[in-house]
Amino acid sequence: MVNKTEEELKAAFSELTVVKEDYNQKGYHLSCDVAPKDIAAVAGFFDERRFYLAVELCVDYRDYLEIVYIFSLHMSLCKVKITVKIDPVKPVLPTISGIFASAYWYEREIREFYGVLFEGHPNLTYLFLHDGIDFYPLRKDRIPVTDNDKRELSSFSPEQSEDSLCINMGPQHPSTHGVLRVVLRMNGEYIEEAFPVLGYLHRMHEKMAENRTYPQFLPNTGRLDYIGAMSFNLGYVTALERLAGITVPERANYVRVIATELNRISSHIFWLGAYLADLGALSPFLYVFDDREQILDVLEGITGSRLTYCYFRFGGLYNDIDDAFIAGTKAVISRIRSRFPLYEKLVTGNVIFVNRTRGIGVIEKERARKNAVSGPVLRAAGIPTDMRKLEPYACYSEMNFEIPSGQRADALDIYNIRLREVETSLQIIEQALAKIPEGPFMTPKVPKKLKPRKGDIYHTVETPRGELGIYIVSDETDRPYRLKLRVPSFSNLMVFPELAKGNLIADAVAILGSLDLVIPEIDR
Amino acid sequence: MARFDIDRFGAGVFRPSPRQADLMIVSGTVTKKMAPVLVTLYEQMPSPKWVIAMGNCAISGGPFVFEGQYNLIEGVDKLVPVDVYVPGCPPRPEGLLEGFLKLEEKITGKRRFPGPVQRW
Q1: Prediction ipTM score
Q2: What is A2-153's CATH superfamily?
Q3: Strand A117-119 vs strand A92-94: parallel, antiparallel, or unpaired?
């Protein structure tokens, strides 16, 4: 697939120099530098070949700004990095949001953090930030926002349209699970348009990464996604190990998989309770919390914390597992298995639940691709893509598991997929427990001051919510030059305005819940 | 069933509207974008009213304070008066329960249970 894409790209654009990269070191197969005027044509090329735009980001190299596009395929492993260099004083670039819907928000983000103007973008207004911030935060030099730019950035106000009623959902609405705000323009009971407003929990993680050393940023990863902290922790640690060339002992890899999968189960069953509470069924919440406490206890035994784990280290683990952990994990497996029939009875067969969720929030394959949806939502749309299978990290390549896939792609399907994924995780844990080798849990002599090689890497892992991509640019110092997190909830939320259109407001809650959003991760 | 039960102290009655609430728990980071919303919420609550700052982020900005930060309110007590601070990142459930008891002590002047034994 890689060779085919390379040839086709060379044939379509003869003036481009396509570079074949070392995938194991960089995380992408091809890279290519494109002139600003050609970017729309190149994006169209990838759109025709059913690529999706995983992430669009900007790096400030002082002499120039570099916009990076990562294009990726769902069913086979082929990643392409396209870069565009633009002038830092007057940064202008044609938009590709008409081709890839996922670029719509990424370009708004780059606009407010870097001041890059995307020509032809329909709505370049504040997404995360607000008019109290008078410089572009992620630029390396302090570049002030001019009054004119500020006026443009804050020009969008959906509340002030005349004929229709606007309802504010959030930022303190109980069913948004955090401080997400969605402005809904209503026509009676039906939603005409939905405008998510983000940034109420923008904690500057990406800016912080540039100010901290690599190990100092480790605790942040647990705070990005407080429900599935292990996966974020693992993603960051494996990305850095790949960049710096640190090997990990076998035993540590197995423990990583076990701990991450336990955390995935706790995340999924937490979602189950919270989602049903959103739909008005309060009792499942109490049942799943009981189960979740058991998992948290087991994880607390080895990590020392209840939620925001920071268990993995570069080159291994914080400490080794003990017999109590293994016994506890086995108890959790049998407990969760024994509870499944109960959930089936309580929820899956419940006619109220089925009628509330069937047929709403349908995500077709094409819509999922255009919006770069990932995780269980993507699998419910009938595309069985899982980073654990597609790009195995830790020791997932040695595990034998099936990826569930749905057909209808509605909220009910997403529910079914998540429950089946719990079973998948249980199987993975069982296999890992059976195979776990003896040996050291930490590579000796990992330098305290990590200085990875010069260059960049795009590394992906599968979190409970979908594809987490970590893009790191290293300049051989002990802190990242740029760290970008492609977070799954952000991409999944992008599809919400399309799904909500024409639905009842009560169904909007059901759709929003089915996407399983974690707000600190979206806002970063 | 759930292990940490605030209903035992009569504190479990959840109200989705600030107009029916007398206690606001600020349980996360307060950003500059959130600040006006938070103050409005506080002002919507009928008196007498109390505030618990839960977690290091709400107390002081916690781990997210660094030189050059542009979006953080370093402590919710810069916006609204805070009665009880519950430290931790994140606080344990027992910590929040103790926070409720401390608030009760502050309001009634006496403690429901004997407190933890002071060993130092």
Answers
A1: 0.86
A2: NADH:ubiquinone oxidoreductase Nqo5 subunit (3.30.460.80)
A3: parallel
